[in-house]
Write a structure and sequence with these properties.
Blueprint (H helix, E strand, L loop, with lengths): L1 H9 L1 H6 L6 E5 L3 H6 L9 H8 L2 E5 L6 H14 L4 E4 L20 H11 L12 E8 L4 H14 L11 E9 L6 E8 L2 E10 L7 E9 L3 H13 L17
Amino acid sequence: MGAVASMFWVDAELGVDIYLDGIITVVDSKYGLKHLAEEKPDGLINEASRQVALADIIIINKTDLVSEEDLNKLRTTIRLINGLGKILETQRSRVDLSNVLDLHAFDSLSGVSLQKKLQHLPTAQPHLDQSVVTVTFEVPGNAKEESLNVFIQNLLWEKNVRNKDDACMEVIRLKGLVSIKDRPQQVIVQGVHELYDLEETPVSWRDDTERTNRLVLIGRNLDKDILKQLFIATVTETEKRWTAHFKEDQVCP
């Protein structure tokens, strides 16, 4: 699913004929927890967790087949994996099409709805026993575009950012609104696996409000404090702060 979404950034001609509106994942109420908890060999992320992590809409189906207690456990697990996606609950896959069409999850218009979502997204560190989690942080100020690209590329391309346990941080999806120096508009940043894009939104920064940057990252081995520290280094241009958890000669496999 992530590979398909990434194609729209790589192949400009494909984007002319086909429009990527968003990613929808359907979770079976009865077997969802089992699939999300499944352990894969060699430290791989199981496919169910990956699909939930990538989704803009998560549809929990067959809710009539489980108890409210089990449904609550499933909701909580999904929300820990993907704190940004919208959850819909249904039976027999019946959903209102207005809830799953015209999402604009991958274009500049998504910046408007993203701003509202970010205001209500909790910033607390998720439970560390989750394989895939959502972390979010906010940093005031402006970012230089070149430095921001380096920050994202080290996470998505070089994969040389590690947490306190020296484990590689693996980002499945990245989304946020940032303030680029000398740009009047808010800029939305989106990433899926190794590919990402920066695009101006129709929304301009108001003169009477402080410019700020808010990022949401979904992945494994993520450490909110380290990520925020590295981003602050990008904003303040104090590269010495990168050295503790960013090492060019220790690229993750």
